[in-house]
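Re: the 405-residue chain
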Amino acid sequence: MSVTRDLQTGAGSDDIRVMIVDDSAVIRGLTARWIAEAAGVAVVATHANGRKAVEDVAISKPDVVILDIEMPEMDGLTALPLLLERHPGVVVIVSSTLSRRGAEISLRALSLGAAECIAKPDGSGRIASAAEYRRELFDMVTHLGARARARRAREGAVAAGTREQAAPARLPPEARGHLPEQATGGRAGSGPPVRRQAAEGARALRPYSSVPPRVLALGSSTGGPQALVQVLASCREVLARVPVLVVQHMPPTFTALLAEQLGRAAGLPAAEAKEGEAVVAGRIYVAPGGLHMLVACKEDAIVARLSDTPPEHFCKPAVDPLFRSVAQVFGPAALGVVLTGMGSDGGLGAAAIAASGGSVVIQDEETSVVWGMPGAVAAAGACAGIFPLPQIGGQLRELLRGSAR
């Protein structure tokens, strides 16, 4: 099959198209060089400020925009909604510093429609810092860019009336077969969601535990901050019954601000977990960036543990260590939730919760920004229910009240 190429940019017809927006010529050049080394990805435009990016986005038609925050003429936060308006479906990755201001603006950008945020290297000159930034950025560009291209292809096929071509790409067969349904035959809003096997011969969903949950543990990554806010806000009236433990793939500073956001959404005290503190009902504990969070028994209490062991799935904090410890401490009284995110973190930990008799609920593919983490749980056969994001809070209400089975 021949590949047509954009004569102006050199991008192939199947390449993920990337725009880089940063006021630093050094950063623009370095990022463009990194991306140019990768097969299937092409830089189609670079700009020194948000105004130029907004003027060009409908012409360059990028799949992904890597957007700096602090720039002259028009900053990233101002440019973001204009980019999304002028080129619907474009994925915006916000690149910012690790400062509190940078973290605050990044979280604001996520609420305005950015798909992901990434912290720039700390400027210390450490090779590891730059290498990690490069790996994370490339993962985001390739995963989110591929999803954006697939979505636009489906929309184009639907517009052309070719329903077969519009079928969405899926994970391998072992991750397929489970679709959420409403209690009254799939009519949205008609009742509390229930889990159901969607295809004959597909792996059956696991039964829910018969033991009322004594803990709620949630894990997420790409798209996670907004998903977490929505889920916790929609079940806030029952969260005082259990401790709420959250792992979101984020660097230091970002996780402290995320805890504040989640506390406001849930109406509960929330903070980064501290080593050795008691884990009690009615509080939200967020894994600090750069450390794994676990739970352990100490005499007659359950306490938080922070671990500086190596990253898992390139992540620190990671979901798997928390889920494994939750399975060990709470057994069949553990309730886990895996929301949108790249990679497979959470899959092994969810399997540990399921093996201990606990329950795991995941977000469905359609409403996930990336269905990597939830898909890994589905592929492991570890989930009891798969639901669209707007229905997860309702299901958690029923489970925490002991009335959903």
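The chain has eleven helices and 16 strands.
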